[in-house]
Predict the structure.
Amino acid sequence: MKPRLSIILSAVALIVLLIVQYYNISVTFQTKREQFDNRYGAIVKQALYDYASGAAGYQSDSLFILFDSISEELVFQSGQVPGGPVNGTLQQQILASYNRILLDHTSPDGYLRDYLVRAGADPDFRSGYYIRELSLLDFDHVIPVYHDTTGLQPAGLRNALHANTYAFEGNYFRIRYDYYIDFTHKTQIIYRDMVITFILAAVTILIVLFVFFMTVRNMLIQKRLSDMKTDFINNMTHELKTPLSTIAVASSTLGDENLLKDKKKVLQISEMIKKQNKHLTQLIDRILEISIWEKDQVKLKKQSVHIYEFIEDRIQLFRMENTGKNLQINTAYKLDKDFVALDEIHMTTVLNNLLSNAVKYCNEKPEIRIEVSVNLKLKIRIRDNGIGIRKEDQRQIFDKFYRAGKGDFKTVKGLGLGLYYVKQIVTAHQGEIFLHSLPGKGSTFTIEIPLNDEHPAGRRR
Ligand code: ADP
């Protein structure tokens, strides 16, 4: 399956999982709310029943009397309701007075609170009455005041518990009203009950997210590796082809009778074959070395190295190898010790790689500055005036097969192994390598290797 497709599929699966979890949580919330309403509803019903049974002093009689007297007054004495339908303002006034009576004279709230505490439930709530139907009675004549047929909960008590419906009929009135209880901590109580559900959902989502990101990350790493391997194979083919074709041309030239007479030419050609052969061997050795590192850590053979002589020898040899390139190399030393413990052979290659890169990746007359210092650490800094390395390449420059500036590898030969090798060797010496580079200005590589006291220290220079 293509990586892009599997990423898309996993992302879709992740979104589905999120939706399912969301759905689960809302279903659980719904269930918990129903459980809450059932439990609290049962307690409230029982409490209201006990309250109405009289022992607790329910004032239904006084309520009845009050309703009756206010209704009688409305019907006969005030003359406000002559028997026709009640207009809007008057209706509000009448409802308000009945509501006031309800609030002032029927308050099971205190009783209910105590009851809830005794039942081990949360006692914080606010309550409300809502008159559904009210009519005044004038003997056989019914004067409707208000009739709510919607059955909806009143605006301020949308999520409240419907505790009871009361209906009375007196001589001068008929009333039906609902009693609602809104528990203050209802949502918190439900959420508290859902803690385990939340934790499980969060953990599942986190695990899946983690696995998803790790998979995507690994996929991208794999893709980068495989891209680099393809690049490497292209480069290697290119690198191997040049010496091979030179050898092929040279050896076929050697078969020429006329040429064989010219001893100097023959020697030149044999020298060329030798040189190309050496180059081929070096290339193959490098590839083999890499495959050995895959299995094992680099093993160092440290020995005491006279650092000044070591560096100067390398520079001299490097100059010889690059005669004709008009190199300019200058050096600066600050040495507290003469001898340091290094793997001489590996460090030779490290220096060669850095120096040849400084020349390879330079479009002008190469000017290289080498600074070496020894105190608690060995520091070797190599600065060039080359093409520099872009910021986005700097992080990967030490990776195996990595070559900066894609596409232009055909102009400068390489396998992308030089700096990888350098990094491996410096790390094997417990050291670090730093790069500072500005495109167009040049690059500076700094190697820092800690020096332990047990290694043989030499005389001061
Ligand atoms: P190679 O030279 O075989 O490509 P290296 O590992 O030595 O491989 O270098 C990796 C890449 O880093 C090179 O392809 C080049 O783009 C960049 N590079 C290395 N050294 C320098 C330098 N001194 N100046 C500019 N670019 C460099």
